[in-house]
Specification:
Largest sheet: 11 strands, antiparallel
Order of helices and strands: HEEEEEEHEEEEE
Structural class: mainly beta
Strand order of the largest sheet: 6-5-4-3-2-1-11-10-9-8-7
Length: 252
């Protein structure tokens, strides 16, 4: 079964690393990795420290703009740690949207403004696992970054970093795109990341912005449709909304 896309796809930001609160008993933020050479790559260390700081946040929002096979798409994902997520994917050409909410062991989905449908337990468990792996767990290797200095990103004064090679990929591969990661110069928190094409630096093909709305809350939906009665036909269709959109390839 194809893994359900949590955004955290969008967590292409998480190509730069994962995010959220540290797991109890896990590595202490800022502590050196056992066996690692100190300051082996100070720029990568700064990116990792920023993501570790994000893991200490109680909540945050990721808003991503990307180009998919269906056209320009926006994906907004809210997180209230440790176990709440609300994802909304909107196609800009059709304005059609789909949503998924995860609260603890339960999850729901809907299309447009329709009623919410409870997802099956195995799908909710899949979402839980994916959130655990892409959001909560510390990433051992964020990749090799170079420091590109201070700049502006979304009206923030940021420190910028360019990803030169990703974990598990050889540096010899030719690629027409490159990824930038931006850290708030004052707070040290991530501000965003972007996938760029040389010569078109002002028009990223993928961009994620992190924010921290003070009123961010995630609660179970109220207008949940009642379960469909069991069908006697041998090939009953699955309940509407039982699957969420797959991750666009550009989001990683």
């Amino acid at each position: 079964m194809r893994r359900i896309a949590l955004v955290a796809a969008s967590l292409a930001a998480l190509t730069a690393g994962a995010h959220a609160q540290p797991i109890p008993g896990g590595p202490i933020p800022g502590a050196p990795t056992p066996g690692a050479k100190p300051n082996a790559n100070p720029c990568s260390d700064e990116v990792s420290a920023s993501l570790q700081k994000l893991r200490k946040s109680s909540w945050f929002r990721m808003t991503s703009d990307m180009i998919t096979e269906n056209g320009p798409t926006t994906m907004q994902v809210d997180y209230v740690l440790p176990d709440r997520m609300h994802q909304k994917v909107t196609n800009k050409l059709t304005n059609k949207a789909s949503e998924v909410i995860l609260v603890g062991n339960e999850a729901w989905s809907r299309q447009g403004e329709g009623s919410w449908t409870a997802l099956k337990a195995n799908i909710a468990a899949e979402l839980q696992t994916q959130m655990q792996e892409t959001v909560l767990q510390q990433q051992a290797d964020v990749g090799a970054y170079t420091c590109k200095g201070q700049t502006k990103f979304e009206d923030h004064d940021v420190m910028s970093y360019r990803l030169e090679s990703e974990p598990g990929k050889s540096g010899g591969e030719k690629n027409q795109t490159y990824r930038m990661f931006y850290v708030d110069a004052l707070t040290g928190l991530p501000v965003g990341n972007a996938l760029l094409v040389p010569g078109h630096d002002k028009k990223p093909i993928f961009k994620t912005i992190y924010s921290f709305p003070l009123d961010l809350k995630i609660e179970p939906p109220k207008d949940v449709a009642p379960p469909q009665p069991a069908s006697t036909s041998p090939a009953a269709p699955s309940a509407p909304g039982a699957a969420t959109p797959s991750t666009p390839s550009s989001a990683k």
